[in-house]
Amino acid sequence: MNRSATQFAVAFLAVLFLGIATLAAVVGEVFYDSHSDLTFDLVTGLVGSVGQAVAFLFRLNGTTGG
What we know:
By secondary structure, this protein is mainly α.
């Protein structure tokens, strides 16, 4: 696996698992009336990691990788 594919896989998995954790926390707050300070941190982390992943993918646009 080349470096670009490895970085993409790590970014994808991080966003996937962070997204699942964020969704669970938001659902818990909305439907089960639980309040957690962790929800805001998870949403912030998700937005930041997605932003970094998108910036990385736009940098790769039009390059061969390697």
